[in-house]
Design goal:
six-stranded antiparallel beta sheet, 32 strands, Immunoglobulin-like, about 25% helix, five-stranded antiparallel beta sheet, single chain, about 575 residues, 4 domains, alpha+beta, elongated
Length: about 575
């Protein structure tokens, strides 16, 4: 019993020396207890008698303060055999309002900090006006009311003058649970003027597609900055938070006048260009044709485009659709979506075969009206021997079957072996004749193709034709980015030089090339809403005229550099 009593003081001393003891003392103080609006203060919490850091719950501060920083450090000292340890929590606070504020208790382990008061003085009207002119946010929305699944464009601009320093990154894209948000391009920097003052501008754009009707709230945003002020002849810096307020948008449901049997498609513009490859006046039965239908949607995503199957006559064509290619272009002032549908077609009959019209119903969000985009019906001429379609073969095979409900007389067993052998011999002769007929037909078809296309071309010629077809297809679809890529590849092959030098040489080769290329670049990179894809018809015609003047034999010639000083060349002339 005496030995146990001697051990109790030792056990108590050991517990006192344990790091992170539950009864570590906790204190708290502010660096400033009286501050001006927009200024910050530092809350320092010290837990002594411990070296164990803890994660503090600061949610109680969010009502009246913005937590700008939270740093933690620990210290340990041993002086003359005496140990000291503590953990400091330094929390930078910016008040959200003026007046008498209270910093509530914050729990550290088993202890809590005391309640601390803070006095926040309001800014003078002159100081507030000076700050508002130094840095501010602007937010524009394309419309106050949109249809469900249609496009809403949000533009943010942060304007700042000299002496403003940003402490935080620009806000991310809006986080909206009931909408699809797409970033349009990258944040751009520029300069502008407001009320005679020069500002730097950082601009961000987003396309929002609400998925539910009702109200859509775009949340408020803010950034932290430091501004330099001159008050009463004294220069000082103040930390500020600038931002935008929340905005509410009305999302309308699908109009009652929209056809209920058609998929909902809101957009600013819809086009349905189609291309048939190869493009020639006449085809042969059995040739493989490629039909491409592009659903181009300005002001919405490519995924909203419904599939548009090509309803060809099964007696005229065999159709083999491929997987669609869906893309979204977010480089402009809005989203431009596309769905490319490719179908391989095999003509089965000779004569005039029909490609039926294709229609797509959509809602014009600019005019608030129902519209229909359509591809007109077309026909193509084919020659050769008709091929029986698979459907007709199946129908013929079904015609030999006995109709249901009719009695069938069982066949009598053969009694003469010679008769059976004769039947088998005739059947074999008929099968051989059929195979021979198929071989002759295939040989004639190959002969016609050889006579039409000639001998196999060299690989360089095949490459030239492939690049030329790709360029012609891009000109038909009139997409500026595709035209630029296809034109560069084709000119590099024609001239036998790099793409950049080939484009420069093409610009000098024909009078229409320069204006056409300039128009193509303006169309592709313009920031005005009136321009953009597709390319206008005049630009395409100018490019086509300049391309027609090229000769395929130019590939071996070296490129010529443009004159360094054009005016000297004119003087010399």
């Amino acid at each position: 019993m005496v030995k146990l009593l001697r051990l109790c003081p030792l056990a108590a001393l050991y517990c006192l020396l344990l790091p992170g003891a539950a009864w570590a003392a906790v204190s708290a103080q502010l660096s400033e207890q009286v501050i001006d609006e927009l200024e910050t203060t530092r809350l320092v919490i010290r837990a002594t008698g411990t070296r164990q850091t803890r994660k503090l719950d600061l949610s109680a501060l969010e009502k009246d303060f913005v937590v700008l920083g939270n740093n933690t450090s620990s210290q340990y000292r041993l002086i003359n055999g005496r140990e000291q340890s503590w953990v400091d929590y330094q929390i930078t606070l910016q008040p959200k309002r003026t007046g008498e504020l209270t910093i509530p208790p914050i729990k550290v382990g088993e202890e809590s900090t005391p309640t601390i008061g803070l006095s926040v003085r309001p800014l003078t009207n002159e100081t507030r006006r000076m700050i508002d002119e130094l840095v501010f946010f602007e937010q524009d929305i394309s419309a106050d009311t949109v249809y469900v699944q249609s496009q809403l464009v949000v533009t943010r601009r942060l304007l700042y003058s000299n002496g403003v320093q940003l402490y935080s990154d620009l806000p991310d894209a809006p986080d909206l649970p009931d909408a699809v948000v797409m970033t349009l391009g990258e944040a751009s920097s520029s300069t502008t003027s407001r009320n005679g003052k020069r500002y730097g501008v950082v601009e961000q754009k987003y396309a929002i597609f609400p998925e539910l009707s009702g109200q859509l709230t775009i949340p408020a945003i803010n950034v932290t900055a430091s501004v330099r002020l001159i008050e009463n002849g004294r220069v000082s810096r103040k930390g500020v938070r600038v931002g935008t307020g929340a905005q509410t948008i009305v999302v309308r449901p699908i109009p009652a006048t929209y056809p209920p049997d058609q998929p909902w498609l809101p957009a600013e513009h819809v086009q349905l260009p189609q291309v048939l490859t190869p493009n020639q006046p006449e085809y042969a039965v059995g040739d493989t044709l490629t039909h491409e239908l592009l659903i181009y949607i300005q002001g919405n995503l490519g995924s909203i485009a419904p599939p548009l199957p090509l309803p060809v006559d099964r007696d005229e064509f065999r159709a083999y659709p491929q997987n669609p290619v869906i893309e979204d272009d977010t480089r402009g002032n809005g989203v431009a979506g596309s769905r490319l549908q490719t179908t391989s077609l095999l003509p089965l009959q000779a004569g005039q075969l029909n490609l039926p019209a294709v229609r797509l119903t959509w809602w014009n969000t600019r005019t608030d009206k129902l519209e229909v985009a359509a591809v007109a019906a077309a026909s193509l001429a084919t020659t050769g021997t008709a091929v029986t379609p698979a459907g007709a073969e199946a129908a013929n095979a079904g015609a030999d079957k006995t109709p249901a409900g009719e009695s069938v007389t069982p066949a009598q067993p053969a009694t003469s072996g010679g008769f059976t052998d004769a039947v088998l011999w005739i059947a074999g002769l008929a099968a051989g004749a059929g195979i021979l007929l198929l071989l002759v037909t295939a040989a004639r078809r190959l002969l016609r193709r050889w006579q039409r296309h000639g001998k196999r071309q060299p690989s360089a010629r095949n490459l030239h034709n492939s690049l030329q077809r790709n360029l012609q297809r891009s000109l038909q679809f009139r997409h500026p980015h595709d035209i630029e890529q296809a034109l560069g590849a084709y000119l590099a092959h024609v001239y036998g030089i790099g793409t950049t030098r080939a484009m420069a040489r093409f610009r000098r080769a024909h009078a229409d090339a320069g204006p056409a290329l300039d128009s193509l670049l303006r169309n592709q990179y313009s920031i005005s809403a009136s321009t953009g894809i597709p390319v206008d018809e005049q630009t395409v015609q100018r490019l086509q005229t300049a391309l027609d003047s090229l000769q395929p034999g130019h590939t071996a010639k070296a490129d010529e550099l443009p004159p360094l000083y054009p005016h000297e060349q004119q003087t010399a002339a």
